[in-house]
Amino acid sequence: MNNGLVNAIIAYIMWGVLPLYWKLFDDVPAGEILSHRVVWSFVFMGILVAVQRRWGDMKRIAASRSLLLSLAASGLLIAANWLIFIWAVNNGHVVETSLGYYLNPLLNVLLAVIFLREKPNRGQWLAIAIAGAAVLIIAIDYGRFPWVAISLAASFGLYGLAKKKIVQDASVGLLSETAVVLPVALGYWIYLAAVGKTTAWTLPASQFVELLLSGVVTALPLLFFARAAARMSLSTLGFVQYIGPTIMLLLSVFVFKESVSPVLLIGFALIWTALFVYAAASIRSTKPAKTS
Questions:
Q1: How many CB atoms lie within 10 A of CB 177?
Q2: Against a cut of 0.85, is the pTM above it?
Q3: Residue 22 and residue 255: Cα distance in Å, rounded?
């Protein structure tokens, strides 16, 4: 559990600061950035798996239809999440991405109750209720249906559920996921070249090198997340996730200068209250009962 918590904290800090990285490519369309993200993630993970000498595991995955389908589903889910996130960041919706990842822990708890038969205690349900009220206040104040937030929460929530159900080494699993969407990414490269709309390949050398690093930037937090998901309950993992959107919210206000209303700040305070309530309830539930 402690090892899982450390991995989760590292992953969510990395994801929290990720908007700073994607802002480097404001002039590149989101779909093209995604295609590079997939290709270079595959290359990085291929090198890592080769160093670990785990290519034999890839053969086992290829021979298992059920495992292959599960990894294909998780690969498509995370690719959809990447595309929505990149588009939102580069089109001035960092606040809404933050809202999406605030929604995600609530969805994680719901998925855990429905599919994994996890049973939150009363204190944890109270925390969920407080967080739910906060998200509702934020959504109403936002003034329109937050489709970016909902899409991000749903895609990443389902991805987390898929990772809980896949018993696979983190490196091999991530390589398999990127391999699923690799043909689509390469096909998109061919299409862009055919219609003369490639942007990334015309970037200055230094900026293109930064884009090449998207494989590392993408893979590292996912590796930490996969290790955390294997060691923690889905609902607890979801609440640790509040680290990421909190960092994103702070970036949106102090770096990207997006407007934030007083109501949003109230919602922010309620969400952190929920986090502390959930943490206290979780710690209390793990303490051994006193014996007389």
A1: 31
A2: no
A3: 13
